[in-house]
């Protein structure tokens, strides 16, 4: 049996030259270079910090384990390029111009353990944004001045998360329902936000530890007080009695019940009147024979009927036969 001949080095060079001449770029899965203005070492670390980049670096080695792109002007993390780095465990995107991230951004980064999104221009964290990051241990998301809204289920799938830092943003309310359910979470940074210590943050104030820098920005009577000291106070304030909306609700319920009772009574009365008229009309339309019999019974007195009784004789049998 003869084996197929192996391609020579000259043949391979001709194939590569043909690809270049035809203008066909190699697939990202085949690239193994180092991006321009970046440093790549033997430890699979790609260092691109402080290189005035305005776009996410291309031609990254697919085996990259750590990627540092901090201190640039990158405005977007392209999901298609980023998700080729399936072995990535460390990603530092701090001090850039990122405005938006979504669940598709990290769709294939199941090994990522450290993520830094600090010092960007994020404004909102959507539902399950970090859901694909099943191995995420530390998430830093500090110093985003416009970040005012974090979806309650943004961290619902991050069961390995241990450290979460959302300090120095513009948060006023934080729903902690998904955070409470995380089994390994041990540290949450909340300081430097404009926390509103009202009933919407009652659970947060009951949950957090007492920290000197985590204080209320409102309402005025609680401004400057620490969140961890207000949990029980907010509970008694928020559940002390009925508010104006509660009284309006009960008033509306009472009105509905009264109206329903009135309508029901009116309906029953109408039905009874109609039934009475129907019975009366039915009695007036009785059979004529019944009317004659009734008149006979009314006009012939029982005494007169007894007087006529002896004069009434039974008919003879012959008269019955004639009639037959």
Automatic annotation (TrEMBL):
<keyword id="KW-0732">Signal</keyword>
<keyword id="KW-0433">Leucine-rich repeat</keyword>
<feature type="transmembrane region" description="Helical">
    <location>
        <begin position="247"/>
        <end position="275"/>
    </location>
</feature>
<dbReference type="Pfam" id="PF00560">
    <property type="entry name" value="LRR_1"/>
</dbReference>
<dbReference type="InterPro" id="IPR032675">
    <property type="entry name" value="LRR_dom_sf"/>
</dbReference>
<keyword id="KW-0472">Membrane</keyword>
<keyword id="KW-1003">Cell membrane</keyword>
<dbReference type="InterPro" id="IPR051432">
    <property type="entry name" value="KCNMA1_auxiliary"/>
</dbReference>
<feature type="signal peptide">
    <location>
        <begin position="1"/>
        <end position="26"/>
    </location>
</feature>
<protein>
    <recommendedName>
        <fullName>LRRNT domain-containing protein</fullName>
    </recommendedName>
</protein>
<dbReference type="Pfam" id="PF13855">
    <property type="entry name" value="LRR_8"/>
</dbReference>
<dbReference type="GO" id="GO:0044325">
    <property type="term" value="F:transmembrane transporter binding"/>
</dbReference>
<keyword id="KW-1015">Disulfide bond</keyword>
<feature type="domain" description="LRRNT">
    <location>
        <begin position="33"/>
        <end position="66"/>
    </location>
</feature>
<dbReference type="InterPro" id="IPR001611">
    <property type="entry name" value="Leu-rich_rpt"/>
</dbReference>
<dbReference type="InterPro" id="IPR000372">
    <property type="entry name" value="LRRNT"/>
</dbReference>
<keyword id="KW-0406">Ion transport</keyword>
<keyword id="KW-0813">Transport</keyword>
<keyword id="KW-1133">Transmembrane helix</keyword>
<keyword id="KW-0812">Transmembrane</keyword>
<dbReference type="InterPro" id="IPR003591">
    <property type="entry name" value="Leu-rich_rpt_typical-subtyp"/>
</dbReference>
<dbReference type="GO" id="GO:0005249">
    <property type="term" value="F:voltage-gated potassium channel activity"/>
</dbReference>
<keyword id="KW-0407">Ion channel</keyword>
<keyword id="KW-0677">Repeat</keyword>
<dbReference type="GO" id="GO:0099104">
    <property type="term" value="F:potassium channel activator activity"/>
</dbReference>
<dbReference type="GO" id="GO:0008076">
    <property type="term" value="C:voltage-gated potassium channel complex"/>
</dbReference>
């Amino acid at each position: 049996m003869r084996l197929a001949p192996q391609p020579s080095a000259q043949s391979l060079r001709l194939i590569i030259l043909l690809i270049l001449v035809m203008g066909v770029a190699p697939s990202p899965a085949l690239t193994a270079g180092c991006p321009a203005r970046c440093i790549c070492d033997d430890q699979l670390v790609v260092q691109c910090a402080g290189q005035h980049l305005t776009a996410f670096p291309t031609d990254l080695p697919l085996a990259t384990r750590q990627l540092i792109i901090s201190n640039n002007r990158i405005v977007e993390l392209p999901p298609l390029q980023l998700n080729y780095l399936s072995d990535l465990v460390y990603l530092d995107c701090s001090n850039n111009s990122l405005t938006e991230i979504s669940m598709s951004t990290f769709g294939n980064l199941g090994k990522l353990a450290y993520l830094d999104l600090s010092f960007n221009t994020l404004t909102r964290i959507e539902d399950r944004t970090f859901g694909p990051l099943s191995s995420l241990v530390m998430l830093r998301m500090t110093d985003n001045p416009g970040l005012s809204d974090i979806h309650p289920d943004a961290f619902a799938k991050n069961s390995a998360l241990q450290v979460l830092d959302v300090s120095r943003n513009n948060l006023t309310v934080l729903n902690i329902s998904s955070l409470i359910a995380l089994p390994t979470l041990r540290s949450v940074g909340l300081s430097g936000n404009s926390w509103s210590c009202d009933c919407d943050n009652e659970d947060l104030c009951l949950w957090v530890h007492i920290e000197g820098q985590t204080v209320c920005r409102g309402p005025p009577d609680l401004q400057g007080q620490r969140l961890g000291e207000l949990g029980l106070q907010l509970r008694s304030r928020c559940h002390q009695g009925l508010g104006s909306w509660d009284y309006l609700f009960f008033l509306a319920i009472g009105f509905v019940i009264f109206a329903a009772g009135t309508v029901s009574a009116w309906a029953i009365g109408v039905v009874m009147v109609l039934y009475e008229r129907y019975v009366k009309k039915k009695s007036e339309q009785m059979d004529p024979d019944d009317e004659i019999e009734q008149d006979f019974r009314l006009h012939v007195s029982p005494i007169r009927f007894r007087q006529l009784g002896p004069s009434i004789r039974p008919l003879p049998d012959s008269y019955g036969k004639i009639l037959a």
